[in-house]
Amino acid sequence: MARSARFRSIAGIALAGAMALGITACSSGDSGDAGGGDGEGLVTVGFVAVGPEGGWRTANEQNIQDAFSTENGFTLKYAPATNGDQNSQITAFTSFIDEGVDAILLSATEATGWEDVLKRAQEAEIPVVLLDRGIEPDDTSLYTSRIAPDNVGISTSAAEWANEQFPDGAKYVVLEGPPGLSVVNDRNKGWDASIADNFTKVESQSANWSTEEAKSVFETILKANNNDIQLVFAQNDEMGLGAALAVEEAGLKPGTDVKIITIDGTKAALEALAAGRLSFVAEYNPLFGEDAVSVVNKALAGDTVESSIVVASTTFDSPEAAQTALPDRKF
Amino acid sequence: MNAAPTERSAAARAVSALVHQPYIWAIVALALLLIINLTKNPAYLAVSVNPATGDLSGNVIDILRASAPVMMIAVGMTLVIATRGIDLSVGSVMAVSGAVSMEFMQSSGSNDLGSAVLAGALALGISALLGTVNGILVSVVGLQPFITTLVMMLAGRGLAKVITAGQNTSATNDAFRWIANGTILGFPVVFIIAAAIVAIIAVLVRRTALGLMIEAIGINPKAARMAGIRPIGILISVYIVSAVLAGVAGIFATASVMTVEVAKTGMTAEMDAILAVVIGGTSLAGGKFSLTGSVIGALLIATLDKTIVYLSIPSSATPAFKAVVIVIVCLLQSQRVRAFFSQRRSSTTRTTKGAVSA
């Protein structure tokens, strides 16, 4: 008896542990004590997040979690997606509606397929704020506001830098994130619109934001083109760093033989830029927790909120610029 | 005068033996892929010495290097499947192993051989621990392998995230990096290590009774126990071997970029491993297994991955191509299709062989 009860409780703990890693038990520690009773004044906010993905995402989600702190009057329920799966996000989103949270923050892993749940949130009169990633079709009536840096603008600045560096054009490769993301579409849009006509796009290949995949993919692309590539436009830092490794392994010098552009501006990328392994890093500023807090407060107070809020970002085009920025880099 | 005909018949026998191997179609598929690449670029198979690094360089070398992690998990998976089990946790164990080693080297901060060895040993030790849990749950508690390793797959990735606090952790250690990127006489170290490990395991299971016992458990665990084989010990060791090999694969994968990406390292690796095993002709029903087949399956998967990019096909389409290759190879391996192709030697010899080993 006693033993079977103990076994069951151990099994229960193990199961709960396993579930906690999935999406169902999405709330992090702080939501647990919220139910305890310090409730009244706190605003409950559900955060349908992407979860571990890279340095940028970590900085962003940490910043959001810090901004929606108990001191600022919030209880934040953090729900990262299970391995980037949209379904798990929709499940978390729905359960937030059912729980009756006061507001929902959403960083969508995929752009499409959000209409139904967003309508449900609307019916429940829960304001939804999109963080970073937009939805498609971009129906602004379905959400309160979207806070994000301007992807099109950032990749435009990257393309303009490339135009300056290679006045006679160059052969280049684009390393993209997973197809279908609004980020990927926007970063392609800004780049394609601004890159000069004398540039040749040799290849555009997805490396799923991953260093390991980018290294493997770019090593093959280099082989397929007899190393005749002058420029890589990597749509995030991790892939750019992977491409740099592939260039080094091919016996070439990144920054000299192959110039590499990355977007995001994490510490690792700035270190690589300072060391001359990357050539241009365009920041995609992740620190907009304060903006999110003020938008949520306004929306809950019934004030009007702009449907799109652009977060200011900067660019780094030299090792020196990276060195000056590095000491107080927060992500 | 006498020597020539016997030699020829030996060669002919070797060829006919090869044709009747279950993995012959994987070899054919592999050859086909290489031919497709050759039509795009006749110099595809050329291997040259890179003047800048002094290493051998070429697509073949890239394939060998990329196949090493798949080979590790495929070989472990073969043994597990031979016992009529499955190990879905290999990808997560890869992430755990990578996370442990990267986190250790980052916090130790030293760039010496000692810290690389310690990091590797720690990673393999924890992998072995996870494998032991799998093995005990399957053999002693009697949980289904599918459920056990599915739970471990979820728990493992969570564990990797806990170890690195959800961060993608990088480290600097030249010795560790050398495992995946270094060369011996210009030849990639990672493939040499993988090949050596496969060889040791092959000797272990084929030159001792171990392989026979694994097959016996896969065919009929009860009969195996009555015949004096102790399934618990063998099952536990098989899951440990699979997890340790996954740990090695995790070291290979993270050492190549010196970063562990907790959400991506080893992602869907269990699928690649199962595919390599199936392509290699090992039946998912347990019993007979072929390590050579799985190694060829791993090479095929690595080649397929590389070919997709080489031909400028969007790499997001890779799973679809894998599906097509697997369906075709499995169809060709099926008894009925094989019987249709070679009516002379039907499956009778194979069945008697199986019965004897059981």
UniProtKB/TrEMBL annotation, chain A:
GO terms for cellular component: cell envelope. CDD domains: PBP1_galactofuranose_YtfQ-like. Residues 46-303 form the Periplasmic binding protein domain. InterPro entries: Peripla_BP_I, SBP_2_dom. Keywords: Signal, Sugar transport, Transport. Belongs to the bacterial solute-binding protein 2 family. This is Simple sugar transport system substrate-binding protein. It comes from Agromyces atrinae. The lineage of its organism: Bacteria, Bacillati, Actinomycetota, Actinomycetes, Micrococcales.
TrEMBL record, chain B:
This is ABC transporter permease. The chain crosses the membrane at residues 23-39, 60-82, 88-105, 117-137, 184-205, 232-253, 274-302, 308-332. GO terms for cellular component: plasma membrane. The lineage of its organism: Bacteria, Bacillati, Actinomycetota, Actinomycetes, Micrococcales. It comes from the Bacteria. PANTHER family: ABC TRANSPORTER PERMEASE PROTEIN YPHD-RELATED-RELATED, GALACTOFURANOSE TRANSPORTER PERMEASE PROTEIN YTFT. It is found in: Cell membrane. One of its GO terms (molecular function) is transmembrane transporter activity. It is a multi-pass membrane protein. Keywords: Cell membrane, Membrane, Sugar transport, Transmembrane, Transmembrane helix, Transport.
